[in-house]
Amino acid sequence: MIGKIYGTGSYIPSKVVTNHDLAKVVETNDEWIRERTGIGTRHIAERESTVSMATESAKRAIEMAGIQPEEIDLILVSTISPNTILPCVACEVQKEVGAVHATCFDLNAACTGFLYAYNTAQAYITAEIYKTVLIIGSEALSSIVDWKDRNTCILFGDGAGAVILKAEEKGIFCPYTRSDGGKGQALTCLPGGTIQMNGQLIFRFAVKQVPLCIQELLQEQNISLKEIDYFILHQANKRIVESVAKRLGVTIEKFPMNLQKYGNTSSASIPILLDELNRQGQLKRGMKIVLAGFGAGLSWGASLIEW
Question: Which residues form the Beta-ketoacyl-[acyl-carrier-protein] synthase III N-terminal domain (predicted)?
């Protein structure tokens, strides 16, 4: 059995913080931020929380999938910014959407989190343990950002994205994931603290490892780069996405981006982009898509899916 995506959903907070807004707080400007990151705006949670954003994205995915919440067997939430340590976000979402039969737990793999959660869900489905899975990436990163640090505050935003996976007999699921804890100090956040990052090291890591993992994944499956319709990368930085495309020798048009609107939303970035593309009618059944994530841990990976 293989899980196929039947529904997507996302939620973006209404408050917008522009580069010009940040220039009033730290020494920066719109041109500097856009040139180095591609980001123009980001959305910040005020009344929203990690749970409320996760819940809204889940409701929209459930509605699109045309299922009842009671049909959901498993809820996985990827987040590094939960409202509380206990209970977990997944259990709170279960309560809000009425998925009374679901097993629920959270997963922390930072910006690679949604990809890891997707792979975990597929493993359960392949083992025929669960048939219908709700996967969510939800982040309120504004709560763990130092708004006086111009190296990080320009990068991050809040939001949530979700997908519904349903078991089918035929389909494609090909995962590739790696971690390197020895380089974990490049991106950290201590309890009660804020995100600290070695931006240059993270950039070099991403532009090297992401193309390699995509190439290895496709080589293992004997599938060429030309056969892939879209490469959905974690939305961290425009220059990273462009560098990955260049190293793979693939046209940038196959690498959709929305980071210019939302910034880096960590584990929410891939499902938010998937939902936007899906609702715009750009994803068609049978398309081959590569999902790829990278981030703290250090962790990275890719998955080949058939839409």
Answer: 105-180
